[in-house]
Amino acid sequence: MVDLALQPLAPGPLLRIGNARLRVDVAPQAGGRIAQVAFDGMDWLSSHRGDNAAAIAWGSYPMLPWSGRVRHGKFAFDGIERQLPPGLGGHAIHGIGYIAPWRIDAHSDTHLALSLPLPEDERWPFGGTAQQRIEVRGDALHLALSVTAGERAMPQPVIGWHPWFLKPERLDFHPRGMYPRDAEGIAVLPLSAPTPEPWDDCFVNHDAALLERGGQTLRLSSGCEHWVVYDAPAATTCVEPQSGPPDAFNLLPSLRLEPRQTHAAWFTLEWRAR
Fold first, then answer.
1. What is the pLDDT of residue 215?
2. Which residues of the chain have a pLDDT value below 50?
3. For residue 136, what are the β-bridge partners?
4. pLDDT, tens digit, for every residue of 100-130?
5. Which domain holds residue 251?
6. Is residue 72 within 8 Å of residue 185, measured between CB atoms?
7. What is the C-alpha to C-alpha distance for residues 96 and 220, in angstroms, rounded to an integer?
8. Is residue 119 domain-resident?
9. Phi/psi at 72 (nearest 5 deg)?
């Protein structure tokens, strides 16, 4: 089976929004992701380079209707065993939104609204619709993401963002707890105290995170209480707010989204020069 997460994904046509200080380039055809963000002329994201850039490894993309890994792609809902297509490491990872082309619903100099019909097949058997809004206000980038159920109930989606930040000189992040990972690298319960870096872990976090690089400070805040930090690579650090933990369909199986209900999240990135 082809692992779509590791297949090359080109940006396609880019749409630019922003102002004199904050520039945001969006790639609707490449998973509705942000291809690059620059503040005062300095890029902040690892961008697509060459023809071999894997879909999973550049820009900042939306994760939905699940974030992180679903163990072996398997879970049960309403008494029915489900199988999502396994990918990276044999697990279903980061949903389907980041490899799908998104529809452009609105576009101005400072904002972009996108939508994505979700399938009712082996990729995701419940249907529904995803929406995202990308908006620049002054020195801040405001992101909103949602999934609305259609005629069928579904497991409560876990939605979030996966930005690949160029390696910061400093990460200020103080979570309250951490999901341990088992031998397969999958998050499990109960929570534990955070371990020392490097991390590839999901944390419970209620505070903003700060990244410092090149004389600039980036403040990250979100209504999400779950944040994944992946800082092992030498050139990048991922700080990913998401509405639930990895493998939530198995860890929290009672959570559900009823027909026509909406599950939403927000993420704000705010810059300042030091």
1. 96
2. none
3. 141
4. 999 999 999 999 999 999 999 999 999 999 9
5. 63-273
6. no
7. 24
8. yes
9. 55, 15
